[in-house]
Amino acid sequence: MDERLITHLRHVDLAVPDFDKQLDFYTSTWGLSPETTDDGIAFLAAEGSPEQYSVRLRRAPEKRLDLIAFGAASPADVDALAARLGTAGVRLVTEPGSLRTPGGGYGFRFFDNDGRTVEVSSDVAVRAHRRVEEGESIPVKLSHVVINAPNPEATVAFYEKHLHFALSDTLASPHMGSVMWFLRTNRYHHSLAVARGPHVSLHHASFEMRGIDEYMRGTGRLLRAGVEKVWGPGRHMAGNNTFSYFLDPHGNTVEYTTELEELDEDTWHPHLYDLSEPEVADQWGTANPMSEFVAKQSFNDPDRGVFVAPPV
């Protein structure tokens, strides 16, 4: 029963008080397409992705991370994972069943050790998507999600033990010890990462661009639009991916990236990278230095939704 049943990252769902401002940012500025919208809820797709949506926005009195959704290969795998988690004492939010979100499918939800809601699903209808063209500075797909945890060692252990994520690399600093763990569920370096933070919250959500040119064009487009840049542009050591971090209207950090490393899982050995070496944070040396300001922006506000399942 120790095989990996999660195949990939599907979407990240956010609740926000100023729904209209957030919706305008993610569509007009960030470059997602409003695939399905209703009063107070919107499902936003990345043009190059077969996923029905990459971001869901929901109007709510308080800002929170509603859920992180992952895919599985079949209903049998969904059932097996739900049974495995239930037997291990993990609290299920819903039992496996038909999903009522765009694309349907079969899935269930549970709370992780920090109280985040996580969904796993299979058989979601494939969205009619397209190849993003040369020069188009819009996201191809959701690349990865990074979460803050006050006890990150326990959170990493949860995802390794129960969901069989594998550790790709770890970042450490001389005075803080280990501060970020990169976890994979397929050949990509990470689809989830856990950062040491003062409270449970979203650290950032990252979106893959077509290539370096499109990534730089997107970075410049946001700068010209006056969107607050947190960090970048640069290229990380762990994952070897490019990065430009910005703040959405509600203070969530969102990233444009490209060229996230693909690993040979049979031969890969995790590195422990020292963040006091400048090239670890940014191989290029083009980004503003990692500072307390940069770190604090990514701490985000304490998530008020822990161990409270979203209504939809």
From TrEMBL:
CDD domains: BphC5-RrK37_N_like
Database matches in Gene3D superfamilies: 2,3-Dihydroxybiphenyl 1,2-Dioxygenase, domain 1 (3.10.180.10)
InterPro entries: Glyas_Bleomycin-R_OHBP_Dase, Glyas_Fos-R_dOase_dom, GlyoxalaseI/FosfomycinResist, VOC_core
Pfam families hit by this protein: Glyoxalase
Domain VOC: 8-123, 141-259
UniProt-listed PROSITE patterns: VOC
Name listed for the protein in its UniProt record: Oxidoreductase
